[in-house]
Design goal:
disordered C terminus, globular, 7-stranded mixed beta sheet, 10 helices
């Protein structure tokens, strides 16, 4: 069936991943290394909180939810690592395709602000480039926290306000213009939101503020650069060099300009959460102030 990839729906709610390429595969590895709870608890993790790479392919968890699953690409990719894989999306037409892509998955139509699942249900929740599109991102994050079991993890990807391009297009004179638009996210909030009212872009402080008051501990927070898959199809040698250079930047302060934030949070008691989140928000503010004098609001 045909999907609205460049029209009003796409502008308002974004487009799902329709193909699986190197960029998605790289993110999958991050999801597995940071997000998968291990049967051995912390004994199965290396010092920075990731799963030991030798165990990633061996560990399986009971229940995984892809929150905003689109046509089911990440549902299908995560299925081998779960006893039971679940997905939900607001778009019925996306779920029709997802049911073909992942016939054994448990898929439901719902909104992120009111997940149709009981409390403490899932071991892992993935929210991949979804929060920027929902009506109420704070409520959507609260729902993720609610359905996570104690010790379960959520892996969150959202657009980075400091990335030089707005990848969701923009509006001009009432008309939606699809594509990458340079420097919009560096404009003051009022002007930026006039040009791109349909999508959020987050500073580190803005993303981490969504966790305040929730029973979540931030175990990992960083920025990542693109997969360059479109560029690779046209100019593979250039894409190879771009990956080599920018992926090296992910280990430097210049990671702050990556395309997406990656945050990994773990369900804990409220007292533990308040302490840990306050530390992370303070650190994010300090890092942004030291990196660039740029947009301050999410």
């Amino acid at each position: 069936m045909g999907l609205d990839l460049h029209g009003a729906r796409a502008a308002r709610r974004g487009n799902p991943s329709l193909v699986w390429r190197a960029g998605q595969n790289r993110r999958l590895r991050m999801i597995l290394e940071w997000g998968m709870p291990t049967a051995g608890g912390d004994a199965g993790r290396v010092g920075d909180g990731r799963i030991d790479s030798d165990r990633v392919d061996a560990d399986r968890v009971d229940l995984v939810l892809v929150d905003g699953c689109g046509v089911g690409m990440y549902v299908r990719a995560l299925a081998p690592y779960a006893q039971s894989i679940w997905g939900m999306d607001i778009e019925g037409e996306h779920l029709e395709i997802a049911r073909v892509n992942t016939p054994d998955a448990n898929l439901q139509q719902a909104v992120c602000e009111a997940l149709p699942y009981p409390d403490a249900r899932f071991d892992l929740v993935l929210s991949h480039e979804v929060l920027e599109h929902v009506e109420d991102d704070r409520q959507a994050m609260a729902e993720i926290a609610r359905v996570l079991r104690p010790g379960g993890r959520a892996v969150i990807f959202v657009p980075n306000r400091l990335y030089p391009f707005e990848t969701h297009g923009h509006y001009w004179q009432g008309r939606y213009i699809f594509g990458n638009t340079p420097l919009i996210n560096y404009l003051p909030n009022r002007l930026r939101n006039w040009l791109a009212p349909h999508v959020r872009a987050y500073t580190g402080q803005g993303l981490l503020s969504l966790f305040v008051g929730l029973p979540l501990r931030v175990v990992h927070f960083t920025q990542i650069y693109p997969g360059y898959d479109n560029l690779s199809a046209r100019r593979p040698a250039l894409a190879k060099w771009m990956r080599r250079i920018t992926y090296a930047l992910e280990s430097s302060p210049l990671r702050a300009f990556g395309i997406s934030h990656l945050a990994v949070v773990e369900k804990v008691t409220e007292r533990e959460a308040d302490r840990e989140t306050d530390k992370m928000v303070t650190k994010a503010v300090e890092n942004e102030d030291a990196t660039v004098s740029g947009p301050s609001a999410r």
